Amino acid sequence: MNQPNQTLRQQVLDRVADCFSLAAQKLDREFAPPVVHFNQRGRIAGSAWLERWELRFNPVLLADNEAEFMAEIIPHEVAHLVAFACFGRVKPHGREWQSIMLSIFGLQPRTRHRLNTAKVAPTFAYDCGCRQHRLSLRRHNNIQRGKQRYQCLHCNKLLSLSKIS
Ligand SMILES: [Zn+2]
Ligand SMILES: [Zn+2]
User: Looking at the CA of 80, which ligand is closest?
Assistant: First the structure.
């Protein structure tokens, strides 16, 4: 897996540390620095592992979206750890997390990123009749080669490749 270069890696670690010191200051308490890995895959920008006290960032998305990571993705994931430290296991994007995003980081608590995902694995649009599904290249190939069929969990119809993608 491609790892970010030393400079970018350090920028991420610094931003994580800044977010925590801001939280420490506003909440008047201390936080241990988390473990940070660059091993998140797919279309997910980052994830927070609460009990492990660990953050994982996607190196492919990071390389193409540095500004968004610094501005939003990193505070978003740090806010999950802060929420866990202060409130325990709460809803991932619930009130506690939202209030940390707003009042500590001054950010709108959005839960979906709008990153450039051109370089991560493509997905394929499939329809069942009730909604659109995004399938991975592996699943798409399985269907097209007749090795596997996939059903919609909601309407039970078989998925077929969308006419419009
Ligand atoms: Zn989140
Ligand atoms: Zn369906």
Answer: 1
**Domain ranges, ordered by start, for the chain:** 6-103, 123-161
Q: Which CATH architecture has domain 6-103?
A: 2-Layer Sandwich (3.30)
In one-letter notation, the amino acid at residue 141 is N
Contacts 24+ apart (CB under 8 A), 151-155: 152/128, 154/128, 154/130, 155/128, 155/129, 155/130
Catalytic residue at 77? yes
Which residue stretches of the chain have pLDDT < 50? 165
**This prediction's pTM:** 0.74
